[in-house]
Amino acid sequence: MSDESRRADPPERMCPSTPRENATVFLGMITPAGRVAYVTPAVPAQVVLDDQADAADQDKPAGPVEARYRLAGPCVTTSCGFWTGDHCGLGARLSASYQETVTQQETGLPRCAIRRSCRWFAEQGPAACGPCSHVITDAR
After folding, report:
1. 99 is a domain residue
2. Which of 10, 3, 38, 14 lies closest to 135, judged by CA?
3. Helix/strand/coil for 43
4. Would you tell me which of 24, 56, 75, 138 could form a disulfide with 119, CB atoms 3.0–4.6 Å apart?
5. Would residue 106 count as lying in a domain?
6. What 3-state class would DSSP assign to 97?
7. Sign of torsion, CA 19 131 69 115?
8. According to the UniProt entry, which residue ranges have a biased composition of type Basic and acidic residues (predicted)?
9. What is the mean pLDDT for each group of 10 consecutive residues in the chain (140 residues)?
10. Beta strand pairing status for 14-15 and 25-30?
């Protein structure tokens, strides 16, 4: 048996900033400082979304779920406005922009439940992780 035939299929690529309609994984909470506080191990998005629906009935914070939570889901490639035809343009732009504006790079990578399958990490490597923790999904 060749090494090629023993190699596992690559994981389905996940978008680390998806709207609730596509969400399968809860990545973390958005802190008051506007950063993601990641949770590990992975938590199914439905657990948080169901809790959010219950909270809405009890006059808890309103507004888009994506303003409070970071959600991940399968990368939809050609169905996404950021897809360039062969990679995620948003992940590439965020990584490049972050490298230009941050004077001191963060050391170490945040604990992330989807890194192994993350589209941004697969395409940009560790350079995607710094800006990722600053992203708040625009659910308009």
Report:
1. yes
2. 38
3. strand
4. 75
5. yes
6. helix
7. positive
8. 1-12
9. 48 92 94 92 90 60 82 95 95 90 70 94 93 81
10. unpaired
